Structure prediction request, 229 residues.
Amino acid sequence: MTNFVVLVENIDSGDQVSTIRSPTPEAEKEGWVYLLLEPGRYYLRMQPWRNNRISGRFFLSVPVAGTVVYAGSLPIRCASVVTLWIMSNERVSPQCLPTDTVEDESKSAGQIATASFAQYEFATILMREPK
Amino acid sequence: MISLVPASSEQEHPVYAILLAIQRYGLSRSFVQLFPALMLVVVVVGTLTGCMLPVGPLRGSEHEDITMKKSSIVLLRLAATHDGKPMELLNKWSSPFA
Prediction:
């Protein structure tokens, strides 16, 4: 189950990508996810929770096919819990603030890539905010 | 009168030909008529399999190989913290829309 939304749009074609996967269940618990993207230029935005604020756009470049590209880590700060009442069921939702910065965790990403995608070449190309 | 010569549309569309054959001759007769074609399929699939060529639906790894010829894996981490402590953003919270 994913509570977040990652919005990826090809800058040139306008095509949107919505399929998010995780390498392993263990990696998923730590927030590691991946997308399959054809070479090109993309804008990425993310929304931690459906009613939370959507992050700013990050520019993402995929130079070639057949590789694993680590695009960076997005820190998300969540605070107090809001209780919702829907159809008599108590549900909880965090209030999260998406980041405007990208952190570099290349070492951990390399370990994830080695464990799950060892047959492909690994590279780090961090997302950045458009100028 | 029933024509024993397949029409051009039947030759172009084997599925139609099979359905028409069943309609014309009944299931058992149709099976006899189609037996050579079935044997041909068995021989072709057996030959391809013997040559280690893929036959049938793609397995997961094959599908991934084909996808990776066109795409790359873009790895991200959504590093969520709750009041400064690590939080499982993906699994911890129940979705009101689930």
